[in-house]
């Protein structure tokens, strides 16, 4: 019997992506995002999630894909990523969340074995199949590693938690 992994599948541009369920805190309907001055293009801004400021990143922009129109199916995946000695909570805007499903880990191939070009800093943990479609499983830690998760001076990251405003 082969091991299977629970993943959340979603679209960004024409791509089908997945992340492990254990990394997803919740899935939100798209909501207004407070823009951050001088933010990089992929950082849409922040949302208030039960009193916590959560940065929201546009996955399309982060992956170098063209912008797309928001729809009634657009969602924000709230995920955690390793950051220093703790975790950072980040919202990831997607075009559509499809489902929670199982991927056969034995059939998940690293990029080299999937006959794809390797590129520096690739955030793809592997390539699999879901209902006959190719799915790219994202490595969230590698995807967000080059980003400044503190957003700006005046924010702090708490062990096991989100990036929060600094206490004066």
From TrEMBL:
<dbReference type="InterPro" id="IPR039315">
    <property type="entry name" value="CheW"/>
</dbReference>
<dbReference type="InterPro" id="IPR036061">
    <property type="entry name" value="CheW-like_dom_sf"/>
</dbReference>
<dbReference type="InterPro" id="IPR002545">
    <property type="entry name" value="CheW-lke_dom"/>
</dbReference>
<dbReference type="GO" id="GO:0007165">
    <property type="term" value="P:signal transduction"/>
</dbReference>
<dbReference type="GO" id="GO:0006935">
    <property type="term" value="P:chemotaxis"/>
</dbReference>
<dbReference type="Pfam" id="PF01584">
    <property type="entry name" value="CheW"/>
</dbReference>
<feature type="domain" description="CheW-like">
    <location>
        <begin position="4"/>
        <end position="149"/>
    </location>
</feature>
<dbReference type="GO" id="GO:0005829">
    <property type="term" value="C:cytosol"/>
</dbReference>
<protein>
    <submittedName>
        <fullName>Chemotaxis protein CheW</fullName>
    </submittedName>
</protein>
